[in-house]
Request: fold
Amino acid sequence: MSAKLERLSLILRDVFGDALQSLVVDRGEVTIQVAASDYLRVAGILRDHADLHFEQLIDISGLDYSAYGNQAWGGRRFASASHLLSVRHNWRVRLKVFADDDAFPVLDSVCELWPSANWYERESFDLYGIMYSGHPDLRRILTDYGFVGHPFRKDFPVSGYVEMRYDPEVGRVVYQPVTIEPRENTPRIVREENYGDVGHG
Reply:
């Protein structure tokens, strides 16, 4: 671990103490995890504390842990990860928080702290169904307003639930149940006797 990451880790542990559920340094990145009830308070301190000064929000990502590592996951299902940058100190941190309720995931919005969170939280809501309490305009941003479900959830079918097409008789786009038949794609394997042998072309 570099001296800079070690210093950042020590400051984070000192400032947040028991509020940190975990602090992981991996591949040159620091990730901290906090409870949903502490999320907004910790985010505010990350922005305003002079020794941290994470004045810029780079991204917010939704996460679905329902089949993490290709196996059953024992913890909460939905999380949000905020990627923060301190230009002043030239370091980054990832702030991760799990929603308490898997059936109706809700987290606090950080739009008042970082206005750039607006569209990222809308994207996370649209694709994962994570609600952000206090968001000024939480509505879909990538899918159609009539879209059913959240397509980045791991239990969402690859073909979706509905498809749309232009109906010339009605003169507009119409929705209908998916007509794609599920099929198994088995790759064709070509085996040549001398494949990969340099001496045989």
User: Anything to note?
Assistant: Strands lie at 20-26, 29-34, 56-64, 78-86, 91-98, 106-108, 131-133, 162-167, 172-177. The longest helix spans residues 3-16. The mean pLDDT is 90. The two ends are 48 Å apart (CA to CA).
